[in-house]
């Protein structure tokens, strides 16, 4: 029986995949794994028995990935599972940025009119205040062409928008997902100077924190709109406030900040990007499925801090060793097994940055000689699991 603890609202369609005879959800203090959304793990105590954390979402800046890796805690996330929800809210926000739709709706809803005739007369008189422009023909710059950025880029083309993207880390697979009509900026400056709307879709890391600052804003066109549905900490707020007094007309964000609230040129949503039923279900299902795969078979899929490592589970006795990525680890593991009379049937080893993972299937008839302690004796081994 595995014990699971959840933080935040995790969709039932996902949690139902934990079979009650195999999993107990939120019923014990000592959980083997957590399923979370935006819960801040940086401040949390990590108990030694915690095996994994599954983040039902894309961004993992709320989780200390490296620290957990060195403690042998595998972190999973759900790449792409909420991309469509975010993209649709970004599209809606782009429309809001060019047409004063909310202002018009507020005006008509917050007035009282004597009768239908006076309502219609007032409307005809006032509607010129709410004239906007069209997205078609505008130029949009997208920084970060991953799951959200790529899908957005392709859709914007269909709306007749000129799209230019910047992503210095774009993978070959990622590039295949993007229409050739999307222009590639080699330098950020090529994009900033030219766009009517800039939208940010890169992760928050130590390298990108506060990256969007005066050097960016100063290069932008007068009247430009900036959309941030990625993370609030990507932006230098003091520089943004100055830019809003200068050339940036509007800032639309999913990450409200106290210093920006109520600013007439700022529209803030309460982190709603992924808040659709479809996205919440997709994320929960993907998070639960990858977590179950790991807990039940040791295979790692969609991890944010360990290498993806899959070995089909054929029911043989299996060892899973989480260890540091240092020379001769596989050699030492193989020797310890041989010393214990254990024959390796199948094995896979993958590394990622400072850590690595070795999955070993061993011959069934030798399993009684297995001693996990023999592997823990190897320096650099963080955790050993047996299946
Ligand atoms: N508002 C919300 O509810 C949501 C927000 N997000 C945020 O959006 C971010 C992006 O999400 P996805 O597209 O799903 O992630 P993704 O991992 O598929 O794409 C991120 C892209 O950013 C690129 N990138 C990294 N550093 C960059 C840099 N310095 N300059 C330009 N590009 C850079 C990467 O190469 C990658 O292609 C997430 O990290 C998360 O912070 C994601 C989902 C929901
Ligand atoms: O779970 C949520 O609502 C937030 C999603 C998010 O920000 C992400 O996936 O990075």
Automatic annotation (TrEMBL):
Domain ACT: 318-387
Transmembrane helix among keywords: no
Top EC group: oxidoreductase
Catalytic activity: (2R)-3-phosphoglycerate + NAD(+) = 3-phosphooxypyruvate + NADH + H(+); (R)-2-hydroxyglutarate + NAD(+) = 2-oxoglutarate + NADH + H(+)
UniProt KW keywords: NAD, Oxidoreductase
This enzyme's EC code(s): 1.1.1.399, 1.1.1.95
Pfam families, per the entry: 2-Hacid_dh (PF00389), 2-Hacid_dh_C (PF02826)
Pathway connected to this protein: Amino-acid biosynthesis; L-serine biosynthesis; L-serine from 3-phospho-D-glycerate: step 1/3
InterPro entries xrefs: ACT-like_dom_sf, ACT_dom, D-isomer_2_OHA_DH_cat_dom, D-isomer_DH_CS1, D-isomer_DH_NAD-bd, NAD(P)-bd_dom_sf
PROSITE patterns in alphabetical order: ACT, D_2_HYDROXYACID_DH_1
Role played: Catalyzes the reversible oxidation of 3-phospho-D-glycerate to 3-phosphonooxypyruvate, the first step of the phosphorylated L-serine biosynthesis pathway. Also catalyzes the reversible oxidation of 2-hydroxyglutarate to 2-oxoglutarate.
Homology family: Belongs to the D-isomer specific 2-hydroxyacid dehydrogenase family.
Name of the protein this chain belongs to: D-3-phosphoglycerate dehydrogenase
Origin species: Exiguobacterium mexicanum
């Amino acid at each position: 029986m595995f014990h699971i603890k959840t933080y935040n609202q995790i969709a039932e369609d996902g949690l139902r995949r934990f079979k009650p005879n195999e999993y107990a959800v939120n019923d014990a203090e000592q959980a083997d794994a957590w399923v979370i959304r935006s819960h801040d793990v940086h401040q949390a105590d990590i108990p030694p028995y915690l095996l994994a954390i599954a983040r039902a979402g894309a961004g993992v800046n709320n989780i200390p990935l490296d620290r957990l890796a060195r403690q042998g805690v595998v972190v999973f996330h759900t790449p792409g599972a909420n991309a469509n929800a975010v993209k649709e809210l970004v599209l809606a926000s782009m429309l809001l940025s060019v047409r004063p739709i909310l202002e018009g709706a507020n005006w008509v809803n917050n007035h009282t009119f004597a009768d239908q005739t006076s309502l219609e007369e007032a409307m005809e008189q006032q509607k010129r205040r709410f004239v906007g422009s069209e997205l078609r023909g505008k130029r949009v710059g997208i920084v970060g062409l991953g799951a959200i950025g790529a899908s957005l880029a392709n859709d914007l083309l269909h709306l007749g928008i000129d799209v230019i993207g910047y992503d210095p880390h774009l993978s070959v697979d990622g590039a295949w997902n993007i229409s050739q009509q999307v222009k590639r900026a080699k330098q950020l400056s090529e994009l900033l100077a030219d766009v009517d709307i800039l939208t940010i879709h890169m992760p928050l890391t130590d390298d990108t924190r506060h990256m969007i600052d005066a050097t960016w804003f100063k290069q932008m066109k007068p009247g430009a709109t900036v959309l941030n549905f990625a993370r609030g900490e990507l932006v230098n707020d003091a520089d943004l406030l100055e830019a809003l007094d200068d050339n940036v007309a509007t800032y639309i964000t999913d990450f409200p900040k106290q210093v920006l609230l109520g600013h007439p040129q700022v529209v803030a949503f309460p982190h709603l990007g992924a808040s659709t039923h479809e996205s919440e279900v997709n994320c929960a299902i993907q998070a639960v499925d990858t977590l179950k795969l790991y807990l039940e078979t040791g295979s790692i899929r969609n991890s944010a801090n360990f290498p993806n490592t899959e070995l089909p589970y054929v029911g043989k006795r299996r060892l899973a060793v989480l260890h540091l990525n240092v020379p001769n680890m596989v050699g030492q593991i193989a020797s310890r097994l041989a010393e214990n009379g254990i024959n390796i049937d199948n094995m896979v080893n993958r590394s990622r940055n400072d850590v690595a993972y070795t999955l070993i299937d061993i011959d069934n008839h030798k399993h009684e000689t297995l001693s996990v302690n023999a592997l823990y004796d190897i320096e650099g081994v963080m955790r050993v699991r047996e299946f």
